[in-house]
Each structure stands twice: as C-alpha cells, then as structure tokens.
Amino acid sequence: MAPFLPNFQSFSLSLPFSFKMKRSFNSVTRPNSAQLLFLLITSFLIWPCIEAAAAAAEELLKGFEATPNPSIPFFQPLLNDSSTKFSFGFLRVNSTQLALAVLHVPSREPLWLANPSTLSRWSDRTKVFFNGSLVVSDPRTRMFWSTETQGDKLVLLNNSNLQIQKSLDNSNNVNVPTVLWQSFDFPTNTLVETQNFTSTMTLLSSNGLYSMRLGNDFIGLYAKFDSGSDQIYWKHKALQAKAQIIEGNGPIHVQVDPDGWLGMYQNGTTPVDIESFNSFQRSLDGLLMVRLEPDGNLKAYYWSGSSWVLDYVAIRETCDLPSPCGSYGLCTPGSGCSCLDNSTEFSSGECSSSGPYSNDMCSDPKTQKNDIKVLRRGGVEVPFKEWMRYETTSSLKECENACGNNCSCYGAVYNNASGFCYILDYPIQTLLGTGDDSKVGYFKIKEEANKKKINSGLGVGVGLLGGAVLCLIGAVGFGSYKIWKKKKRVNRMLEEETGGAMSGPYKDLASASFRSIEMCSSGHR
Predict the structure, then answer these.
(1) In what side-by-side order are the strands of the sheet with 273-276?
(2) b/e map of 146-175 (b: 16 or more CB within 10 Å)?
(3) Counting CB atoms within 10 angstroms of each CB, which of 223, 416, 433, 508 has the fewest?
(4) For the chain, where do the domains classified as CATH 2.90.10.10 start and end?
C-alpha cells in the first residue's frame, strides 16, 4: 500500500533548484523562465492538498458544514486526530460516489465507513454538517444519514474512534465530556486494537456476503447465500481456560489486544479465551487490526511502518472458505477449482452451468413443465459439515427424494457409510472434491432463464439472417432495374437514329453499344 498524504502540519516545499548567490548579499541571480514555470506548475499541483489539509481540524463544532471538492481524487480530510495518524473525511468511491470514512493516513486504508450500504454522490449538492448530529445529505438521490444526537462537538481520538461528545459541568464546574455516539459501536468490516466488539454488533465484509457475530460462547462467521437465512461456516468456541462463562452473567465481547491476540471476555479483565496471532506478546509500534475479507476469511494485520503484514488467518485452507470456486463449483485440495458438471469449464472464477437462483426449486404444477435439471456427482462432500443440517436415511434414493420433494431444497449430499443426508437449503455454492465415490451429490439447476436466453438468442439470430437475405434481394433487384433502364434508354436512342424498330444487325449493334456503355460506366464508378 502506498503512503497516503504527507504530514501537512509540517509540510514544506523543497524545490529541485536553488537561487545562486552572488558575492554581494544584496543581489541574487534571477531564476530563468524554465525555473519559474516549474515553480508555478508545482505550486498549482500541491495547492489543493495544502488547502484540504488546512481545512482539517481537530474538532468540529455546531454549525460546521462541508461539500466535496471536485478536484480531489481520493480523500478530502475534514477532521484529524492529534497524532495525524488518522483522518475523517470524504472518501471517493468509484470516482462518482462519496463515503464518510475514517482512514489510517500512512497506508490510505479505510478503517470505518458511515452507512456503507448506501453511498451518496461526489457532488457539490452533497453536504455534510454537524448540528449536534453528524449528517450527510444528498437531495438528488434522497440519501440521508444521521447519528440522531444532540452533542456539542465531533472529535477523532488517537485510536481512530470518531466520537460525538457533550460537555457537562460536574460539581466542581469542570466540563466532563460525555460520549453520545462513537464509530466503535458501529463497525463495518474492521476492528482495531482496544475496540470492543459486542453481541449486538455485526462485522460485515465489503461485498455484504459474509458477517461475524458472537454467540453465547463462540465467535461465528456466517454466509448469506440469497436464501433468506445465514449459514455458519466457521466457529471458534471459548476454551475457558483462565475464566469460565457463567450463564446469566451477561453476554461475551471480543477485543483486539495490542500484544497480538484476540481476547474473548464476559466480565472483568480476565479473558475466557485467547486466539493468538503471529505477533503474540511481541512489542509492535504499528497499528493492529482484524478484518473480515471479501472471501469470507477473518485476518489480522499490523502496520510495519511501510506496509500491512499478515498476522493471523482464521481459515487456512482455501477449500474451507465458504465459496472459493463460486456457484456449482468443486474445490479439490491440492488441485484447485473445477465444476460439478463435467461438461462445463471453470473460467473467470465461476462455472457457466450455474442456473439462476430461485426460491422455488420444483416444477411448475400448473403447466406440468419440468424446468429443473438434476445433476448427480460422486466423490463430493459438503463444506463445513459440522454445522450443516442433515437427516439420516437408509439409501441414496431416499436422500434424493427428501430433497426432490422439498421445493426449498437446492441439493443434497449422501454419505453411504454413515447414512447422513446433508440438506442444502441455500443456492448451491462450492462443494469439496474427495476420492470417495460413496459420497454422492444430488443438485437441482433451474433451466428456465437459460432457455429464455437461448430462445431469445436464436430469435435474434433468425431475425438478423432474415434481414440480411432481404437486403441481398433488394440489392439484386435494384441492380437489375438499373441495367434494364440503361438498356431501354440505349435502344430508344438507336431507334430514333434508324427511324424505327431495330432488327437484325441493328439489334446486335444495340446490344454491343449497351455493353460498351456498361463497361465505361462501371469503370468510372
């Protein structure tokens, strides 16, 4: 990751040339035109950065208002912490969108976003203001987000926590700030050191597919596979070696410790579980963070001063991720990705045979139309089967019937050795490849949309072919008409010269003359 912005408080401009001093201190040589031009261009380029930095304060009071600067390509700071390691401001997303964000300045890495699911436009009509509440408003898209508070000021702490504070006088008439709202209570995809993650919070991957939540005594990672319910795919249960979880004593919470571990607590300071990182009990100067990645993995990183260093990985094997090969994919350890359907080829991270998602995986009873294709494959196994729903059946056929008669079932995997029938009640994702043919998969594929695409493609093809034929016929007819018209005109001219109808040698002469005219005409086109 490249450095983000210089420290503007100590910003200085150093030029690649210097004015040469004469022997007399009262006179200097004047810069030449090239030097003046370079100075002018350099000043023009850095001025927006200096202006943006000057606008960033260490607290925002009531009445503050700002709009995005169209000349800033990446990040427009509004508020800095006292160490200048973190900054709050406008983050430009996909060139045209805007997100309120807290950034780690040295790495340009966003640590927190306000309302990441709905972004506003990077436009001068988009406004952010503080009136006791932090508000972002985009009237054109009707996007509106607010903290709904009545605070006095907005501050950014040295741990990247954005807070709305209200000053209250105590008995000694000393202002004591009370925190009304803080970004640490609303994490997006990242946790930083000393940040508490409670049972009421959710960590969400940037693509919205995966989430982290806490149970009574565990950390869970969940996948949302468009089925209306989340499927757990990774679970870390508290070992309770140093402290016990006591039922009724409140929920657990998690905190990233600066000494290189993820601690799970219930009450007090003694952890009920420790998930250690590579940097466990090592002294680190840089920031430590935990992030839920777009592939569903939970990873920890620390800032080395020049780059982010991987410090922890929850899921170490690629095939253990929730969907490493996409829909209807097959992940075989040591071999990589392929497709469940042998007739399709794995390309661009997915299998082309995957049909559309549908909540009804049964044939249409009104039309009796069977638009469900069944795919069977041996040597497959369900991923994260420890947390998959299953039934015990006596045969593969009974397992298939249990899914076939269930319109909310997308597939099933039968283990002939144990009799376990794993029911897949979510759209088919990646299965695990094994060398055991006694583990057989039964999968449904909705074909209706694919047929529509084929039929529509065929219709378009027929239409284009018909149009081409009509154009060809028209061109031939028009050409024949022009030839006939020219021939008629020549005949008429010769008739007038001979005084009557042509026959015998005159007719041959007319034909020869016409051919000569045609050749001349074609030669001059």
Answers:
(1) 196-198, 253-257, 261-265, 273-276
(2) ebebebbbbbbbeebbbbbbbeeeeeeeee
(3) 508
(4) 55-185, 187-316
Please, which pLDDT band fits residue 34 given cuts at 50, 70 and 90?
low
Give the integer Cα–Cα distance in Å for 202 and 350: 28
Q: What is the DSSP letter of 409?
A: -
pLDDT, mean over the chain: 79
Chain-centroid distance, C-alpha 31: 51
Helix or strand (DSSP H, E) at 448: helix 448-498
104-113, 416-425, 461-470, 498-507: least confident range: 498-507
pLDDT tens readout for residues 253-275 = 999 999 999 999 998 889 999 99
Task: For residue 373, give both structure tokens.
Answer: 């294709």
Residue 40 structure tokens: 């002018």
Amino acid of residue 196:
N
* Cα–Cα distance for residue pair 388/91, rounded to 1 Å: 40
Sign of CA dihedral 105, 109, 114, 120: positive
Top pLDDT among 17 and 132 is at 132
Tokens of 288: 């430590």
Give me the architecture of the 320-446 domain, per CATH. Answer: 3-Layer(bba) Sandwich (3.50)
Q: How far is the C-alpha of 98 from the C-alpha of 113, rounded, in Å?
A: 10
Q: What is the rounded average pLDDT of the residues 144-172?
A: 90
Give the class (CATH, top level) of 55-185: mainly beta
Q: In CATH, what is the architecture of 187-316?
A: Orthogonal Prism (2.90)
pLDDT confidence tier of residue 36, bands split at 50, 70 and 90: very low
Q: Where in the chain is the domain with CATH 3.50.4.10?
A: 320-446
What average pLDDT does this structure show over 503-511? 40
Residue 255 and residue 269: Cα distance in Å, rounded?
11
User: Which candidate, 43, 41, 45, 56, places its Cα nearest to that of 8?
Assistant: 56
Reported pTM: 0.74
Q: What percent of the chain has pLDDT over 70?
A: 69
- 431 close to 382: Cβ distance less than 8 angstroms: yes
The continuous run of DSSP H or E covering 24 comes out as: none
Q: Which two tokens stand for residue 72?
A: 């800033």
